[in-house]
Amino acid sequence: MRKDYLIDLKHLLSLFLFLFSCQDNYQNCSGLDYGSEHIKIKGVNESDKNYFKYFCKKTEVFGIKIYATENVANDKLFHAASILAEYLDNDEDGTADNQRIVNRLIDKKAWLLMAMNEEESSAAIRFPIGNFAFLELYDDEVSIINGNPRFDASLEEILHLITQHGYAEVYPNKFGENKNSEIAKAMDEARGGYFKNVPNSYPSSAWYTYDDKTCNYSCQITEYTYWAL
């Protein structure tokens, strides 16, 4: 039997076991009550309007929902929610700094979906979830220990959620993810020209570059906005 065939069987078995274990797993988190006065993490239940049977934990910040699988640590889910709260309420007065952005994120159902890792996330969202305005964040990407040399990816991914589905749509002339927006023009100037797709090399005059060839033009603007901030 070929080795690659054995690997495929092992992967399929792991996928089956994960999906089977996730059926109606909201019951595994039904008694969950974790967090603070302002950020509460609860178990998902059947009456939840946005119920996913493969995500059993949820919290929300200013009405923006974060869902997580059972394997995501509670403190990391809380950490992600705290970052979202600080981005939206920078002065921490309990009121969102820009309610138009919050309203747009809510209207679009812009959610953060957290899983243990990429493999679990791929399995968990392989079925249609009725919502494409979401971003993924993995437990193993989140660093909550001060002094940890690993970058805390929640800082980047959560900002992407806000700029891509919030600012880019509320202020399309300024932050729109298209060639004619002000942020796109700034990016193209920084890169030494307009590139619909990531080029093999940038002009020597470029002072900013981004090299992930899987990233289309709108994605490149999302990334540039993050690095510019």
How would you sum up this structure, described in words?
There is one protein chain. This protein is α/β, with parallel strands linked by helices and 229 residues long. It has 2 domains: 3-168, no CATH class; 171-229, no CATH class. It has helices spanning 3-21, 74-88, 99-107, 118-124, 154-170, 172-175, 182-191, 217-228, and strands at residues 33-35, 40-43, 57-61, 64-68, 111-115, 134-138. A 6-stranded mixed beta sheet has the order 1-2-3-4-5-6. Helix 3 (99-107) packs across helix 5.
Q: What is the radius of gyration?
A: 20 Å
The neighbouring-strand order within the major sheet is: 1-2-3-4-5-6
* Major sheet: 6 strands, mixed
The count of domains is 2
**What's the average pLDDT?**
86
Give the helix level as a range of percent.
40-55%
How much of the sequence lies in strands comes to 5-15%
Key descriptive features of the protein:
disordered N terminus, single chain, alpha/beta, six-stranded mixed sheet, 229 residues, 2 domains
Give me a quick take on this structure.
The chain is 41% helix and 12% strand.
SSE layout and pairing:
Blueprint: H1 3-21, E1 33-35, E2 40-43, E3 57-61, E4 64-68, H2 74-88, H3 99-107, E5 111-115, H4 118-124, E6 134-138, H5 154-170, H6 172-175, H7 182-191, H8 217-228
Parallel strand pairs: 4-5, 5-6
Antiparallel strand pairs: 1-2, 2-3, 3-4
Helix pairs in contact: 2-5, 3-5, 5-8
